[in-house]
Amino acid sequence: MDAAWPGTAVEEGNLTVQIAQLRKLLGPAADGGEWIATVPRVGYRFTGAIEQLGGAVRKPLPLPSKPSIAVLPFVAFSSDPEQDSFADGLTEDLITDLSRNAGLFVIARNSVFAYKGKAMDVRRIAEELGVRYLLEGSARRAAGRVRINAQLVDAVSGEHLWAERFDRSLEDIFAVQDEVTAKIVEALLGRLRAPPPRNRPRNLEAYDLCVRARKLIDDSPQTAREAHLMLMRAVSLDPDYAEAYRWLAMNHWMGWVHWGEPIEPNRGVALELARKAVAIDPNDAGCHWVLANLLAYERRFDEADAEFAKAIELDPNDADTWATISDIEVLAGQIEESLEHIRKAFRLNPYPPSWYYLTLGQAQYAAGEYEAAVETLRRDETYRTSSRRFLAASLAQLGRFDEARAEVEMFLVANPHFSTSHWVWTEPFRDAATLEHFVDGFRKAGLPE
Q1: Burial class (CB within 10 angstroms; exposed 0-12, middle 13-18, buried 19+) of 45
Q2: Confidence label for 59 from pLDDT (cuts 50, 70 and 90)
Q3: Per CATH, which fold does 204-445 belong to?
Q4: CA separation for the pair 273, 47 (Å, rounded)
Q5: pTM of the model
Q6: Residue 427: phi, psi to the nearest 5?
Q7: pLDDT of residue 11
Q8: Which CATH class is domain 68-189?
Q9: Highest mean pLDDT, choosing among 167-171, 245-249, 350-354
Q10: Which of 205, 233, 257, 415 is least enclosed, having the fewest CB within 10 Å?
């Protein structure tokens, strides 16, 4: 069910209702039959012809002015999910550590994991991501030991700038991460510029739980609940683990903003957890990012701005922070700044999560660029339940009311209790004109008051 209806509130108990709505909206097929056929005692099947599209060739991105690098997913060389998770966690941590160096341009996690398990020429990968250097390697742990192979490649010349093998006690994993980061920074910048030290977990089981939880936190309400249990276990094992508190805060925030859970106590708990994360590790940019987002939803805008600024100071390559800042700037009526910052986020994260496109579409709508907003919000990466209300508003502003109403119908299938007034109350607007612009589009599209 989760695979078929990602991010949508569909359960076995109401699936027939959703199918009936889809059949109504799709109308009859060309042969007069149904687009969605019932298969007795099995389920449903889409009857239309499906065309496999060839992979689009991406244009090479221009290189940034500073040394640029992508950390490709480390290979586990094992079918064991725990080994795979360990290699992924190592990759993510190396990205975070390198990203904190202002002298480097570092590609975000989401984009490098698009290449996981793919055998491709490093030069092509570098061109598609718009970087000169690639870090690749393998990782495995067994019997209390960790074995890591890493190599830094200049994708332009094909030269291997640095390579090393590590065979250490598992307890030294974070020291190995620091050593790898230092070697790369020194190789690319010619000198070591050490950012402020981050708080490291003291318990490896807590670390494993956090690595697994952060993959699940925004997939669906079901995976979010699973992530919550993992994170609660992590902080019980390591009460001073700032990153675990940060993700717990985000988990509670997403509960009431995205998953329909009660606002209280989630809102208060999220803010308390985010403050605790920052107090434990004031050098973790992610902790400041989460706190800033929560403060914005509390309408404490000056405090939120200060936390966002601190997050960017600590990690100028954090694409998610730039994208979140863009989202908040739309609500503040700072449209040009919003467009600039979401484009910066896209450059750091060329294969971003879908909410980047949603943020871009909202900014384009706010700028009055309705055709561009429609194009963005209809992309495969974006075209889902949460984007339909903004797509409907954009279509309505263009006078395409039939299309707008069709989007509203689809949106209300999964969001039957949506009202514009509740949305206005939830979203932290600080610019009245921008708010009225969105409300006007919702009304023209026919969304409930």
Answers
A1: exposed
A2: confident
A3: 1.25.40
A4: 48
A5: 0.84
A6: -80, 135
A7: 43
A8: alpha beta
A9: 245-249
A10: 205
**Per-domain residue ranges of the chain:** 1-54, 68-189, 204-445
Question: How many angstroms separate the CA atoms of 255 and 264, rounded?
Answer: 10
Distance (Å) of CA 377 to CA 56, 339, 404 = 19, 15, 13
Instruction: Calculate the alpha carbon distances from 256 to 152, 224, 253, 263, 293 in Å.
Output: 43, 12, 6, 5, 14
Q: If 0-12 CB within 10 Å is exposed, 13-18 middle and 19+ buried, where does residue 201 land?
A: buried
Which amino acid belongs to residue 194?
A: A
Using CA atoms, how far apart are residues 154 and 163, in angstroms rounded to an integer? Answer: 12
DSSP letter string, 342-394:
HHHHHHH-SS--HHHHHHHHHHHHHTT-HHHHHHHHTSTTT-SHHHHHHHHHH
Q: Mind spelling out the 3-state secondary structure of 21-48?
A: HHHHHHCCCCCCCCCEEEECCCEEEECC
Q: How far apart are the C-alpha atoms of 161 and 104, rounded to whole Å?
A: 16
Position with higher pLDDT, 161 vs 383: 161
For residue 10, the model assigns a pLDDT of 44
Report d(CA 344, CA 261) in Å as an integer: 32
Cis peptide before 265 (omega within 30 of 0): yes
SS3 269: helix
Question: E strands within 242-336?
Answer: none
- CA–CA–CA angle 196, 277, 258 (5° rounding): 125
| CA gap 190, 363 in Å, rounded | 40
Angle at 283 between CA 282 and CA 286, to 5 degrees: 90
The tokens for 32 are 């007069």
Widest CA span in the chain: 70
If one counts every other C-beta atom within 10 angstroms of the C-beta of residue 389, the result is 23
Amino acid letter for position 283: N
Residues in contact with 346: Cβ distance below 8 Å, sequence separation at least 6, in sequence order: 319, 352, 356, 360
How wide is the angle at C-alpha 260 spanned by C-alphas 257 and 263, nearest 5°?
Answer: 60
β strands within 112-230, DSSP E? 133-142, 145-154, 160-169
Extract the tokens encoding 325.
Answer: 């800042």
